[in-house]
Amino acid sequence: MEFMTGVKQKNTLEIKELIANDYTGRKIRIHGTVHTIRDMGEISFLILRKSEGLVQCVYEEGVTPFSLQEIREGAAVEAEGTVEAEDRAPNGFEIRLTGIRILSEPFCPMPLPINKWKMNVSLETMLSMRSVSLRNIRERAKFKIQEGIVRGFRDFLYGEGFTEVHTPKITAKGAEGGSNIFKLEYFGKKAELAQSPQFYKQTMVGVFDRVFETGPVFRAEKHNTPRHLNEYTSLDFEMGYIDGFEEVMAMETGFLQYTMTLLKREYAKELQILGITLPETERIPTVRFDEAKQKAAEKYNRKIRNPYDLEPEEEVLISRYFKEECDADFVFVTHYPSKKRPFYAMDDPADPKFTLSFDLLFRGMEITTGGQRIHDYQMLLDKMKSRGMNTEGMEHYLMIFQYGMPPHGGLGIGLERLTMKLLEESNVRETTLFPRDLGRLEP
Amino acid sequence: MEFMTGVKQKNTLEIKELIANDYTGRKIRIHGTVHTIRDMGEISFLILRKSEGLVQCVYEEGVTPFSLQEIREGAAVEAEGTVEAEDRAPNGFEIRLTGIRILSEPFCPMPLPINKWKMNVSLETMLSMRSVSLRNIRERAKFKIQEGIVRGFRDFLYGEGFTEVHTPKITAKGAEGGSNIFKLEYFGKKAELAQSPQFYKQTMVGVFDRVFETGPVFRAEKHNTPRHLNEYTSLDFEMGYIDGFEEVMAMETGFLQYTMTLLKREYAKELQILGITLPETERIPTVRFDEAKQKAAEKYNRKIRNPYDLEPEEEVLISRYFKEECDADFVFVTHYPSKKRPFYAMDDPADPKFTLSFDLLFRGMEITTGGQRIHDYQMLLDKMKSRGMNTEGMEHYLMIFQYGMPPHGGLGIGLERLTMKLLEESNVRETTLFPRDLGRLEP
User: Record-annotated residues binding ATP (chains A, B) (predicted)?
Assistant: First the structure.
């Protein structure tokens, strides 16, 4: 009888192994994809692309025992050769080829110059040929950093006593309603795709006190802008026993601090590839909604048109204000008008026209909405009534308050937007693997 | 100007802090929900439920300066008292109450005996009052262990050089088709909910060599069984440069080994609450599909009815066989018939009626399907043609092979099923927070 006993050592090496140990003068094997071939006359450089980066292999005409004509860009190969130190090569070494085994070949030449440092093609082209454009070193680095952000989120919250949950994305028709909901048939019933895990994460606060989820959310909004997606990844947390919504903001600040440290430590290579300087997160200013509006209007001589919400341009100006005044990349805007917040938002007892809520702006764009939620059953019923809302379809949500809930609050962070602003991109599609927007359902 | 500077120390303590330091004789504050009140005559025990477990608080009639009548089960409170060692209390300490602050009160008495060790209510009741039933200590422990499984999956794969990806769940109508797909309208186009991230994770192998995703998948199957869900969490990985599909099985074995160690180390309390003995993962037997079928048929005197697939009863018998023969809880069944595997499965060159694929059975049930995929563009076209499949709608998937893909393979693990079998539950709904099945769209 045969058995599986776990991961076996491969006979090929990874870059990190070649860096960690001295293989100079030794013959090794390595696999990768032929990223580019550079003919330098007597010798040629065959550059392999691996998950970890590039490896320079040296081919010497008349010496290396195979023909370079056989090797095509885009082929997956197992190369064999001797390691030599070479300061000008990536990671300080090169491999003098002694053999090559072709594992797989492309069917046609690359349609995009993915082996160039910058591809110089339109975003439209990049997205329509996504599987190819992502093979570019700079393009893929963005998504490695995105991984780091999600890792940071989870690791930080585990450390703070949060429990991860997985809640359903197909949900019953809810009372919140709205036009921005994707609808579907579910075995003869009307169902919807979840706009957020809001009700479920609140439910789970009654179980685990502190919970988080990282998953897809769906918004059928008809906005065609550089900042909207119709499906995105939401980093959500919700925490019980808070003394105020400031605790939620403090937790988000902690997450950002933790994550910047993680990125510096473990994603330095990608930060360097993209030339990114990480933002300051030690001190994040907070400002009340109406004060922020006022400050921006005064300093930049702009008329306030909508007193209940921030227009995108106002987000830009408020960010600019705090960048100029205290060199801050982030700013918490607090106490949004009750009118513009969902029914479950806790109104400010000091002035119920405002809520105990906040948005986090990062370099001119909202990346988080959060706040304290109503935890009292009667207060929730009253608020729903005052808004003319029906309790039908809300029985399960209301149940959590009937049987007791601690004071709690939480937030949702748009992962693609956070990545976008961190990398100083101008379109959220740049930092989305396979964006879904008004016109884009593929790839 | 005010600033957020990160997480602040609270004036309440958590259980882990009370365990890590000696607070004996000191006055502390702690928050939690009143889990139960036990009247013992002169004293009463007020048991607080916290995310980490239970805390015993002692109320002494005529001494403790508040009235116990004011406190209701299900209330969220901040208790104040003096810590005393007490071997019979959870975690070896109790708190002699000196004060209490009610943070929030329930509106009505608990509808389920959530403070009992076992609730003894039907699964139907548990699921219809999910937000309440999950507050039971044993119920929630299942989902803490589920968290550990996902953590183990991610941490192990990070260590093996995998990159996490987030791929869209709303997809264009694909050629694979089938009746088990949820359909929806996407701005006037026909769209579907992803049955699996299969095509996307293969795409990302061309970018990062090794990738994984943990996310929801959707199956409109009309099965009403203890093992089917219409939405579940899939743990998916896909790896390039494999020498054979055995490498995928070896990686899964490594994940299981890593995760059992993690559970033992960090989830011991929950394992103890549920009385779980973890399965052996050091050696997992492998057996060919037809051999497994044959062995089970012979030993248990059962006729083979369907030569192309395993019936649920056969999965049970094959598992039983390997439990009896080599005390194995897991068994890899390999080389499934090509007929029953998707078009992208790599056929066995030695006998193309079979595929280089596998299922992992765990205690009588399939929890994983995986295998090597076709990486050659022409081979894929030929296979699609031989099945009478159209390439229309498959252009983006085919593109990844046109421009070159390394040999690769991967798998998908049903998280709820793995949790179910690990906890020796008999229905997958027991290990799903909010199950979606033929009749259940709420809560």
Answer: 219-221, 227-229, 366, 414-417
What is d(CA A163, CA A208) in angstroms, rounded to the nearest whole number? 7
CA pseudo-torsion sign A144, A147, A153, A159: negative
Residue B222 is classified by DSSP as: -
- Residues of chain A with C-beta less than 8 angstroms from the C-beta of B12: 241
For chain A, which residues score pLDDT lower than 70?
Answer: 175-177
Q: Hey, which residues 334-373 in chain B have their CB within 8 Å of chain A?
A: none
| Closest CB to A164 among B33, B147, B183 | B147
Residues A217 and A350 in one domain: yes
Nearest CA in chain B to A251: B7
Q: Which of A108, A247, A406 sits opposite B103 (nearest CB)?
A: A406
Q: Do A183 and B187 touch (CB under 8 A)?
A: no
* Chain B residues in contact with A372 (beta carbon < 8 A): none
DSSP state of B337: B
Helices (H), B301-414: 312-326, 377-386, 395-402
Enumerate residues 6+ apart whose C-beta is below 8 A from B247: A8, B239, B409
Structure tokens at A149: 């952000």
Task: Inspect the interface and report whether the beta carbons of B143 and A163 lie closer than 8 Å.
Answer: yes
- Answer yes or no: is A272 within a domain: yes
Q: What angle do the packed helices A395-402 and A198-208 form, to 10 degrees?
A: 30
Q: Evaluate the CA torsion angle B190, B196, B197, B203 in order and state its sign.
A: negative
**Of residues A199, A184, A188, A215, the one with CA closest to residue B130:** A199
CA B290 to the chain's CA centroid: 30
Q: Tell whether B6 is within 8 A of chain A (Cβ).
A: yes
What does the angle CA A128 – CA A133 – CA A137 come to, to the nearest 5 degrees? Answer: 160
ipTM: 0.97
Nearest of B164, B11, B145 to residue B78 by alpha carbon: B11
Give the CATH number, domain containing residue A275: 3.30.930.10
- How many whole angstroms separate alpha carbon B364 and alpha carbon B320? 7
User: Using one digit for the tens of pLDDT, what is the confidence trace for A354-383?
Assistant: 999 999 999 999 999 999 999 999 999 999
Contact B184 A186 (CB under 8 A): no
B87 and B195 part of one domain: no
Whether residues B159 and B216 fall in one domain: yes
Please list the ranges in chain B whose pLDDT falls under 50.
none
Domain of residue A69 covers 15-104
Note whether A90 and A210 are same-domain residues: no
Is A282 labelled as part of a ligand binding site? no
Does residue B301 share a domain with residue B207?
yes
Q: Are residues A94 and A146 in the same domain?
A: no
CA of B358: how far to CAs of B59, B75, B229, B321, B340, in Å? 59, 51, 22, 18, 12
Distances (CA, A) of B363 to A283, B180, B315, B331, B417: 53, 26, 9, 9, 11
Whether B53 maps to a domain, the answer reads yes
C-alpha distance from B303 to closest chain A C-alpha (Å)? 24
Tell which A residues from 90 to 119 touch B, by Cβ distance under 8 Å: 103-108, 110-111
Name the residue of chain A whose CA is nearest to B140's CA. A207
Q: How many domains does chain A have?
A: 2
Assess whether B236 and B328 both reside in one domain: yes
CATH number of the domain that residue A69 is part of? 2.40.50.140
A263 assigned binding-site residue:
no
For residues A99 and A148, state if they share a domain.
Answer: no
Residue B386 domain-assigned (yes or no) = yes
> What's residue B178's pLDDT?
72
Asked whether the beta carbons of B267 and B144 are under 8 A apart, the reply is yes
